[in-house]
Fold:
Amino acid sequence: MYIVKETEISEVLTKGYTDDLDIDFAKQKVEELTERIQNAPSVAPTAEQSKVEVSNNNGLTHEEMLAKDPFYKFRKMKESEKR
Structure:
């Protein structure tokens, strides 16, 4: 893979074709992303909430659960997305 930085570009031969639909599409995507950012949870779970979640794992700590199940962290992430 070769990455070209904008400072390495010396000449643009063609910029490609764009029309009003492309511009409207790009604006729509920017609006969607902006809305998602605004509606995202603003606060990460507190330490107390994390402790409660860990205590629901048969009394094992977060580190013990990770040692027992390497995918534990990802399952917890998936579960928290569903809430």
